[in-house]
Amino acid sequence: MNRNKIIIIVISLFFVYYFFLSTSIKKNNTNNNNNNNNNNNNNNNNNNLNNYNNNYNNHNNLTSTHSKQKMSKLFNSIFISHGAPNLILDHSDKTREFLRTLSKNYYNSVKPKAVLLISAHWEESEFTIQTKSEPGVIYDFGGFEPEMYKMKYPAKTSPELIDRVTELFSKAKIPLAKDDKRGYDHGAWMPMKLVYPEADVPIVQLSIKENLNAAQHFHIGTILRPLKEEGYLILASGGSVHNLRAIFDPKYHLDPSWASNFESWLQNTICEKSGKERENELLKYEALPYYKLAHPRSEHLIPVFVAAGSASPDSKGIRFLAFQVIYLMTLKINNNNNNNNNNNNNNNNNNNNNNNNNNNNNNNNNNNNNNNNNNNNNNNK
Fold this sequence. Notes:
Largest sheet: 6 strands, mixed
Number of strands: 8
Distance between the termini: 76 Å
Strand content: 5-15%
Number of helices: 14
Shape: globular
């Protein structure tokens, strides 16, 4: 949905709000049930307007219905373009602000049991899971502000999550190595320090495979899919476009369409396609004419395949930010339709209840009137 359409919807909601407001003022003789219904409608419209304003200001395309979704049982997988390590120092950065408010704004401050984090900055010959109980941080970068090298993130790993991932790999007959020395790289601790600054949510890293085979990583996502139903969050950290040379070489700035075209393709594939169609389209990324410019080497793109593989087949993604791209991978396609149907059913039930109540009240009134008439007749006699 483009911005113009969103604005039209919001304006429409605005007038609907005043319609209900004016109606409720004029109709002083309505019954209590109707008043309650009008109040509920007004509250819903206010919530839609407030959610739109908040989401637009944060460059967030998440709808009001989904922003209020309770996530205590299902944590949707996320892919983030984590940016430079010192993004954490830039208080004006929209990605920093998004990550800082992610738990509150999207997950209603409900925290997962643990996070399985797939970072572009850990490659091994075989898939490898981190098992060190208190990994600490790795300063796997150079040339940044001195305070970057003093930052700590004392999160712990989760033995339960490590065992569960090991079990899922075993069932799929895929080898999984263990590393009891590995710390958190900046693709992990930097975003997590913003999302869970108190380091009170266990974080376990899972490496990518150095062959960078997209189909293998997508398949890994599918075998990890049960984790979402068990209270775990799968977070993939990389970059939708990652060409460091292009940042410093002016010739790349003359025509940046190679970057925007790749990003548009990725957005369309994740947000507009689902099931096998999405999988097939994602796996064709190397055939794109602008792919090698967007990703001279694909390690920063590979985590997106794990996140996409973990998504439900009947789902579509949501793009959150335009600058540093963040994708939510598991939004049910039919959620809106189901919600609308449920709302319609609820409205119908309410109307039926109102009609029944009104009929009962009318019958009672009639009976009372009849009784009064009988009493009057008897008195007259």
